[in-house]
Design brief:
Largest sheet: none
Length: 134
């Protein structure tokens, strides 16, 4: 092989395959060199884009951490949801209590208004009677 680089493919196997289908040894070696060079060029150009086993393991760790964080967030959401339900229940209870108090106060005010109206009417009648006698 003419490029002097370490083989990245099984060049001997490729050469044998080319010879078995009718290539001369020189043609087989040339074709194998071309394939090997193309593979090396591709690998070198795309090296930054290719993930190693270590890269994949790191991504798996990152994914596990994200899943763990998501579980924590889900737990936080469940806790907030529970607190909100409790707060809503408390507000509903407060509203019901205020509603009952307001109804009671309205009843008292109605009664007092009726009483005051009766009192004013009685005073008015007394004044009318006293003015009539003069």
């Amino acid at each position: 092989m003419g490029n002097g680089m370490a083989a990245t493919i099984d060049t001997h196997a490729y050469i044998k395959r080319f010879i078995n289908v009718g290539f001369t040894e020189e043609q087989a070696e040339t074709q194998t060199d071309i394939i090997n060079d193309a593979f090396i060029d591709f690998r070198n150009k795309n090296r930054e884009d290719l993930a190693t086993k270590i890269d994949i393991a790191e991504v798996k760790i990152d994914i596990a951490e994200v899943k763990s964080d998501m579980a924590g967030v889900k737990s936080d959401i469940a806790e907030v949801k529970s607190e909100l339900k409790s707060d809503i229940s408390e507000v509903k209870s407060d509203i019901a209590e205020l509603k009952a108090e307001t109804k009671a106060e309205i009843k008292v005010m109605k009664w007092m208004s009726g009483f005051m109206l009766s009192l004013v009417a009685a005073i008015f009648i007394m004044l009318l009677k006293s003015n009539l006698t003069f």
